[in-house]
Each structure stands twice: as C-alpha cells, then as structure tokens.
C-alpha cells in the first residue's frame, strides 16, 4: 500500500493537471463561441458559393477556361487543414488519417499544402512532399489567408505542376458532431446537369466568358477555401473543448479515487497506532 | 409589378435579403448596370462599388467590395467580400483609411504589390465615403 505522503503528492499533481485542463476547456469554449458564430454566419456564403457553381460553369461558352481544364492526372495536391496545437482529441488525427487513406489509394504523385502545424509535422516526418506550409493560422482566419492559398494553388494548376487539387478539412455540424470532408477544388467541374436543365436557358457571360471566368473562378475557389478554414477552426475548438472537458472529469474521478485511498491509508495508520498503544499498555500491566 | 428575390451574401453575414425587389444596381467589371426581374440568366464579376437595391419599402445602399453575381429571372445572388449598409458605415474610420492609403501612395514604392494594395485600400475607403452620403448619387446615374 502506498504511503499517505505519496498519495497526497499524487492528489496535488492531479489537481494541478485538472486546473490546466479546466482552464483550457474554458478558453476553448470561449473561442468556440466566436468561431461557431463566424462559421455559422459564413455558412450561407459557403453554400451559396457551391450553388452558383452550376451557373458559373454552365455558361454559354465553347472554349473552356484553363482552371476548368481537365487533363490526365499525373500529380495530385491535397490541402490539409489541421490545427496548430494538439490536445484537442481526435481532431487532428482524423484529418491526417483521411489524407493517408486518400493518398494510399492514388497511384499518382502526391503533394501537400499543410495548413496547421500538426499536419505539417506529421507529414514531414513521414516523408510526404509538402509544397508549402501555412502555419499559425490565427483563430480568426482572415480572408487574406484563403486568398494566398488560392493564388498559390491556381498558379501551380495553371503551370500544370498539379492536375488535381482537393481540400481536406473538418466540417462543423454542431459542437458534438464534426466530420472530415473532402472537396475537389481543381479542376473546377460543372456539376451534373439535372433532367430539367433543358428548359433552363444558358447563362450569359458579360462582357465575355474569358473576362468573367477570370474574375469569378478565383473568387469561387477562395470562397471555398475560406469557408473550409472557418469550419475547421470551429471544429477544432469544439473538439478541444470536449476533450478538455472529459480530461477534467477524468481528473476529478482520479482525485476521488485517490482521496478514498488516502482516507483508507489514514484510517489504517490510526488503527495501527491504536493497536500499538493498546498493545504497549497491556505489556506494561 | 414583377419582383424578384435578392440576397447579398458576405463571408461574415447575409447583408441583405428580400423577396420583393424591383431593381438592383451594381458595379460590374464591365461598368454599372441595373438588373430588373425577368432578366436573362447571367454571371458577371463585380468591382468595388456601390450596390443599390430598391424594394417595396424603399432603397437600400451598400458599399461593397469585389465579388460576383448570379442572375436568374426571379433571383439575384450577390457574393462579395464585404457589404456595408450606408447607415452603418463608420465615416471616421473610412476617412482615416483614406488618408493612410493616400500617404502610402505618396511614398514612392519600389514594391508594386504594396502600391496596388494601397490603391485598393483607397478605392474601398472612397467607396465607403461615397455610400455614406445618401444624397450624392448623381455621378452614379
């Protein structure tokens, strides 16, 4: 049996851990509120953006835009959106697993764009080719971050360094439910035409198809990336909050158990002392 | 009179949504243009500019940044980086931004990216100031 002093030391160490996890939980939940608000506010924008794709690509044009050009795939790019820090439950791992699964299934060359330290570190260690890194993304990701990522990918796609690009991020459905999603960014493909498409007239591009697509396609991609970043941030905080909440609960349970054994040890010590005193007194008689 | 559904959506919020819009004026990459109900389906890019929407209850004015617009006969969707209603524009902030941008432009820059950014900032600030002055729309007609 452990001595009282050992147990006491253990209790105070678990207490300290609990303080930390509780503080982290509180920080995460405060940040989550804001991130959730942002993600929810951005959701109409995100869904509208996806909806307009049919319009953007369904226009009256013969020659396709370089960004919509489909070619034989030699190299695939993945934008991997993870968090910068750990201690957030399975959040980072789920994304990493998904990417590993996806890349394992491809015969083509694979290159990554790592958003967030966690993914970057993991894939670097495992010898993946990382084209560029976007680390320390602020808790409130600016539109600029998404723009920078979009510009870089577009450049590589245009130069035919990459023939397909996907983004892997965590979609925020609610505090308790988030799942890893994959969206294809390039080539920008027109969605399948529905049956009633025939009576829908074709979209006009004004002033010209080229000019409109040049202006609209990059923004479409940027919007998608920006939406993904916001979703991912909200998921990260929600995941961290849940993880830290259960860590705090576990710590409490541990403290309860330890307190129980501390009391038992104390009781045992008292009993022993009493027996010793009684034994001593009897010996004197 | 025919009406249409118009929504102006930014990453931060839905800035405007209405079912009974009579006309919407925007600045496209090709110049200003007004869209009325039953317009042919159209996709076009938008420049930094003022958006005016007229519905049953009156006219709303927004200062908007770049984006694009999808037009269907009964529905117009405007997706822009930001859109501020003329009444919520912080004039002091816009003025400060304008001065800062002008200052940055005055310094000769080797870096063209910086210069371009300053130009965009200036354009945005001027646009906000313009939108905040309700009466002063003659130049947009």
UniProtKB/TrEMBL annotation, chain A:
Any one cellular-component term (Gene Ontology): plasma membrane
Topology versus the membrane: Peripheral membrane protein
CDD domains xrefs: F1-ATPase_gamma
Compartments where located: Cell membrane; Membrane
Pfam families linked: ATP-synt (PF00231)
MF GO annotations: ATP binding; proton-transporting ATP synthase activity, rotational mechanism
Transmembrane stretches, start-end: none
Keyword Phosphoprotein found: no
InterPro entries xref list: ATP_synth_F1_ATPase_gsu, ATP_synth_F1_gsu, ATP_synth_F1_gsu_CS
GO biological process assignments: proton motive force-driven plasma membrane ATP synthesis
Keyword Cell membrane on entry: yes
Subunit structure of this chain's protein: F-type ATPases have 2 components, CF(1) - the catalytic core - and CF(0) - the membrane proton channel. CF(1) has five subunits: alpha(3), beta(3), gamma(1), delta(1), epsilon(1). CF(0) has three main subunits: a, b and c.
Known function: Produces ATP from ADP in the presence of a proton gradient across the membrane. The gamma chain is believed to be important in regulating ATPase activity and the flow of protons through the CF(0) complex.
Name used for this protein in its record: ATP synthase gamma chain
Gene source species: Halanaerobacter jeridensis
Automatic annotation (TrEMBL), chain B:
Keyword check for Secreted: no
Known role: Produces ATP from ADP in the presence of a proton gradient across the membrane.
Boundaries of every ATP synthase F1 complex delta/epsilon subunit N-terminal domain copy: 4-83
Family note: Belongs to the ATPase epsilon chain family.
InterPro entries recorded: ATP_F1_dsu/esu_C_sf, ATP_synth_F1_dsu/esu, ATP_synth_F1_dsu/esu_N, ATP_synth_F1_esu_C, ATPsynth_dsu/esu_N
Any one annotated GO CC term: proton-transporting ATP synthase complex
UniProt KW keywords: ATP synthesis, Cell membrane, CF(1), Coiled coil, Hydrogen ion transport, Ion transport, Membrane, Transport
Name this protein carries in UniProt: ATP synthase epsilon chain
Protein's membrane topology: Peripheral membrane protein
Coiled-coil features, chain-numbered ranges: 91-118
One GO MF term attached to the UniProt entry: ATP binding
Location of the ATP synthase epsilon subunit C-terminal domain: 87-133
Organism domain of life: Bacteria
Subunit structure: F-type ATPases have 2 components, CF(1) - the catalytic core - and CF(0) - the membrane proton channel. CF(1) has five subunits: alpha(3), beta(3), gamma(1), delta(1), epsilon(1). CF(0) has three main subunits: a, b and c.
Localization per record: Cell membrane
């Amino acid at each position: 049996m452990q001595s009282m002093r050992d147990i006491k030391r253990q209790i105070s160490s678990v207490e300290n851990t609990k303080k930390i996890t509780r503080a982290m939980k509180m920080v995460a939940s405060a940040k989550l509120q804001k991130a959730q608000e942002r993600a929810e506010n951005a959701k109409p924008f995100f869904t509208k953006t996806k909806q307009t794709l049919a319009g953007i690509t369904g226009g009256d044009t013969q020659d396709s835009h370089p960004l919509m050009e489909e070619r034989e795939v030699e190299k695939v790019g993945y934008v991997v959106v993870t968090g910068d820090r750990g201690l957030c439950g399975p959040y980072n791992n789920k994304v990493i697993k998904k990417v590993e699964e996806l890349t394992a299934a491809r015969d083509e060359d694979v290159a990554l764009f790592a958003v967030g330290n966690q993914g970057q570190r993991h894939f670097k260690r495992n010898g993946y080719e990382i084209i560029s890194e976007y680390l320390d993304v602020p808790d409130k990701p600016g539109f600029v971050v998404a723009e920078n990522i979009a510009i870089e990918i577009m450049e590589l796609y245009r130069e035919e360094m990459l023939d397909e690009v996907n983004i892997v991020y965590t979609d925020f459905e609610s505090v308790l439910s988030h799942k890893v999603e994959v969206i294809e960014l390039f080539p920008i493909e027109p969605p399948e035409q529905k049956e009633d498409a025939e009576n829908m007239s074709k979209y006009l591009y004004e002033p010209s198809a080229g000019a409109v697509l040049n202006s609209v396609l990059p923004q479409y991609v940027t919007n998608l990336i920006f939406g993904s970043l916001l979703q991912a941030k909200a998921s990260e905080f929600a995941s961290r909050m849940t993880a830290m909440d259960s860590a705090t609960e576990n710590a409490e349970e541990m403290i309860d158990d330890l307190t129980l054994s501390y009391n038992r040890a104390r009781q045992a010590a008292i009993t022993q002392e009493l027996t010793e005193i009684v034994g001593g007194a009897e010996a004197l008689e | 009179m025919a009406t249409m559904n118009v929504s102006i959506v930014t990453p931060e919020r839905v800035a405007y949504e209405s079912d009974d819009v009579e006309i919407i004026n925007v600045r496209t990459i090709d110049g200003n243009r007004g869209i009325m109900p039953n317009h042919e389906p159209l996709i076009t890019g938008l420049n930094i500019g003022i958006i005016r929407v007229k519905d049953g209850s009156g006219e709303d004015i927004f200062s908007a940044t770049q984006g694009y617009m999808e037009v269907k006969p009964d529905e117009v969707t405007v997706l822009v980086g930001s859109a501020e209603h003329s009444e919520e524009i912080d004039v002091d902030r816009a003025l400060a931004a304008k001065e800062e941008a002008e200052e940055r432009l005055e310094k000769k820059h080797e870096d063209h990216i910086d210069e371009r950014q300053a130009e965009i900032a200036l354009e945005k600030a001027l646009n906000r100031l313009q939108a905040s002055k309700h009466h002063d729309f003659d130049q947009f007609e």
